[in-house]
Write a structure and sequence with these properties.
alpha/beta; six-stranded mixed sheet; 33% helix; globular; binds 1-deoxynojirimycin
């Protein structure tokens, strides 16, 4: 990715002589927004004063991190941490939590180490800390950045109370392939939505002020493009053009840095052949030079030593390459601590490189106020306060996506459930499983606090509720294999699970369904076994015997409501064709049951929208709405199977439609919304004006949205554009605005969406964000299928 000299020369020539406006474009792209605290003179003076006193070994100690608690990766260390801390050779620890454990090490650092430099404790605080909220993908489905901010706020407060000042969150990787299990930790497929969520996460954790006692420094991860893993296989290589890298994958990281992110985490993958953990182009050129990042980068778990497997050198060489590229801290890698000093002493690494890394780490420690307030307060650990549970319930309510809601005879629209349904059957392996509701990476979430759907429905229905588990999450064979490899290892609780007798339990479930007026099926996939890190899948169906259970219950002829509990888009094609109502509920967290019941009974009108396309078949993946155009576009409509060459030789599947089963942005409500024709504030705008506009709008798109139904509802109004003639081809649609709007029955509200450089720019072949004369098609509506249309012309 290093640019050849002639290209730099060409860029210069181009910028200086040919197109003056490009200078404006270039300046719009290179204005750094460093975190002012990290850049402060006073803080940096303290850093310099301390640095001067440090020996080489003490400096390197600040670049070393070990996990002294549970393991979140392979090959965990088992060292004498007390001794390392005493000698000043351990600057950071992960997976050590709680007042007692963190203060134990902190006292050693502050009282016994020569320079009294506090330890920075980091942890995977991903969707809440002790109060577990819905998983990040679900939060993205709320299209409500303030919900993510709230979750981050609660997470930071609880983490600080547990001695953790540094959270390994948010994960802002664009995820366009649900085979990749980590899609659960992402905001889905779209850079605009992903950037909005990224900003909110950072704001919630850091509050624009790291020194507050309840602020935590973020670690934005995984830099970079980790979500682009080929074939959706975790840790796999990423191979993509620089324009896609920048315009799609890097955007949310950029947004997070602009929001003041204090640290970043480098990713496991390589990018176009260069490992991300030793990648000067992404870490130094883009992150530091272009974006002005003043914080530090920590490697992912073991990623520095894994560079040996990437074949870029032996231990000392890869440590040097990672450090020189801009990875300041080695997470659980054992390399910086063991080989860097030798590399400096033998002249292979200049000590100034180490100094710069140490500066960056110390900056964050000073900004967090750790030197002045190093200890966790001696307060009892928080456990499930009613106030936080109420917030968790409200937030979870916003994340549920009603995918389908058809009328059934005698009941009308199947949802919300009314008193007409006298007896309700609840069936499925996820109906009463506390652990599964927490989702992946609920590190400190305690299952015992979880309200399951069974508990919540029993509160409402009493003995009108019938229940049968139906089957296990995994078939006997799967269970035998997976219990050996699940996160907890072979000795986890799962290892002792009896093998399921699904045939018998399905028969019992069918009998239960027959006795009821309506059946709620709670199906999905196991968060514990199949979601999150190292949980890629080659198939996207329900696991185990759940599909058989679904089909058997539907065969009773009773109306079925399917509640899908999963951390990734699953393949729901059969269900979509046979089940009248489907609610996508993700992994909803500690208040799972209440939140789902609130929606099922209409106390909460669903407002979530899909942050990732749901496929018809796994073979469509990676499937996303913002596709680039093809010279042979086709609808892929199977009812029009090719009869002639014009229909055959098209970009299509012969055995499946091209489109998503449920597209990006999709989600129904218990009311209906009507969109009027959107209006653009001006029909034309000159290129020069857009280029000069910075973050200011040059036009607005106005639209009236009306609630035409009988109940109040919230709609996520979405604005999409298409740049119809750029020098680099642009996606057929791109999200460039959204707003949640609540409307009483019959109420109309007017919304204005700004359009300016930020929304309209794209990367040209010179890798500059720019604007060219073109026409932008613009759509406003309730999903990526929006049809209400206007346009904006950009002229010379
Ligand atoms: C590996 C994961 O990739 C990363 O997301 C996490 O923060 C670290 N391990 C620490 O647990």
């Amino acid at each position: 990715m290093k640019r050849p000299a002639f290209r730099v020369f060409l860029n210069l020539l181009f910028a200086l002589t040919i197109v003056i406006p490009c200078c404006v474009a270039a300046s719009a792209q290179s204005a750094p927004a460093p975190n002012p605290q990290l850049a402060s003179k006073e803080l940096n003076a303290r850093v310099e004063a301390l640095l001067k006193q440090m020996t080489l070994d003490e400096k390197i100690g600040q670049l070393v991190q070990y996990s002294a608690g549970f393991a979140t990766g392979p090959g965990a260390s088992n060292l004498h941490y007390d001794e390392l801390v005493t000698k000043g050779q351990l600057g950071s620890m992960l997976n050590v939590t709680g007042v007692e454990a963190t203060n134990h090490y902190q006292h050693i650092a502050m009282e016994k180490s020569r320079l009294h430099i506090p330890i920075l404790f980091g942890l995977d605080v991903i969707h809440g800390h002790r109060t577990t909220f819905p998983v990040p993908l679900a939060l993205a489905a709320s299209w409500d950045p303030s919900a993510a901010e709230t979750v981050a706020r609660v997470g930071a407060t609880e983490a600080r109370a547990d001695g953790i000042a540094w959270v390994f969150s948010p994960m802002v990787d664009i995820a366009r392939d649900p085979r990749w299990g980590r899609i659960i930790e992402s905001s889905g497929e779209d850079p605009y939505l992903g950037s909005a969520m990224a900003r909110a996460w950072v704001k919630g954790y850091q509050q624009d002020d790291l020194s507050k006692p309840d602020s935590a420094a973020v670690s934005v991860k995984h830099f970079a493009a980790y979500g682009g893993a080929i074939a959706g296989r975790d840790y796999n290589a990423v191979d993509m053009g620089e324009i896609t890298l920048r315009q799609v994958y890097l955007e949310p990281y950029r947004a997070a840095v602009e929001a003041g992110a204090a640290t970043m985490m480098s990713s496991f993958n390589s990018i176009n052949g260069v490992p991300a953990t030793a990648n000067p182009f992404t870490l130094n050129q883009i992150l530091r030079k272009e974006w002005g990042f003043d914080g530090f980068v920590v490697s992912d778990w073991g990623a520095v030593s894994e560079l040996i497997n990437h074949s870029i050198g032996d231990g000392p060489t890869v440590a040097r390459k990672a450090l020189e590229a801009g990875v300041e801290m080695d997470m659980e890698g054992n390399l910086y601590g063991t080989v860097l000093a030798g590399q400096v002493r033998s002249g292979k690494i200049h000590e100034s490189v180490v100094d710069e890394a140490v500066r960056r780490v110390l900056r964050v420690k000073f900004a967090l106020g750790l030197f002045d307030h190093p200890y966790a307060p001696e307060s009892p650990a928080y456990d499930a306060t009613p106030e936080r549970r109420a917030v968790a319930r409200k937030v979870a309510g916003e994340t549920l996506v009603l995918l389908k809601n058809d009328p059934v005879e005698g009941l009308g629209d199947l949802l919300p459930l009314t008193a007409k349904a006298k007896k309700v059957a609840l069936i499925g392996p996820l109906a009463d499983n506390q652990r599964e509701m927490l989702g992946a990476w609920a590190v400190k979430g305690d299952p015992k606090y979880v309200v399951t759907l069974k508990t919540a429905l029993a509160e409402r229905l009493g003995n009108r509720l019938l229940y049968a588990p139906g089957c296990e999450m995994l078939s006997g064979e799967d269970a035998n294999v997976l219990k050996q490899v699940s996160f907890g290892g072979a000795d986890s609780a799962h290892a002792s699970l009896p093998l399921p007798d699904d045939a018998k339990t399905i028969v019992e479930a069918v009998e239960t369904a027959r006795k009821a007026d309506v059946t709620i099926l709670a199906l999905g996939e196991s968060a514990d076994w199949m979601e999150g890190e190292a949980s890629s899948r080659a198939t996207l169906g329900f696991t185990g015997a759940q599909e058989q259970l679904l089909e058997a219950v539907v065969a009773t002829g009773k109306p079925v409501i399917l509640v899908v509990l999963a951390g990734r888009p699953l393949e729901l094609k059969w269900a979509a064709n046979h089940v009248p109502a489907i609610l996508e509920a993700w992994s909803p967290g500690v208040e799972a049951g209440h939140a789902v019941a609130d929606v099922l009974f209409g106390d909460v009108n669903p407002s979530g929208k899909l942050p990732a396309s749901l496929p018809r078949a796994v073979g469509q993946e990676p499937l996303y709405y913002a596709q680039l155009p093809t010279g042979r576009p086709a609808h892929g409509d199977l009812s029009r199977l090719p009869r002639n060459a014009g229909e055959k030789f098209m970009s299509r599947y012969m055995d499946e439609e091209n489109s998503a089963l449920f597209p990006f942005g999709w989600g129904l409500s218990y009311t209906r919304f009507r969109y009027d024709q959107p209006a653009i504030s001006r029909a034309e705008v000159p290129v020069s004006e857009v280029l000069a506009s910075g973050h200011k709008p040059v036009a607005t798109v106005g639209v009236d949205v009306k609630n035409t139904g009988k109940v109040a509802g919230t709609e996520v109004v979405q604005l999409y554009i298409r740049n119809t003639s750029a020098s680099v081809e642009q996606p057929v649609r791109e999200l460039k605005g959204f707003a949640r709007v609540s409307l009483a029955p019959g109420e109309t509200k007017h919304l204005d969406f700004p359009l300016g450089f930020d929304e309209l720019n794209f990367y040209n072949v010179e890798i500059q964000r720019t604007i060219e004369p073109t026409t932008y098609k613009i759509w406003v509506g309730g999903s990526s299928l929006a049809t209400a249309e206007t346009s904006l012309k950009v002229v010379e």
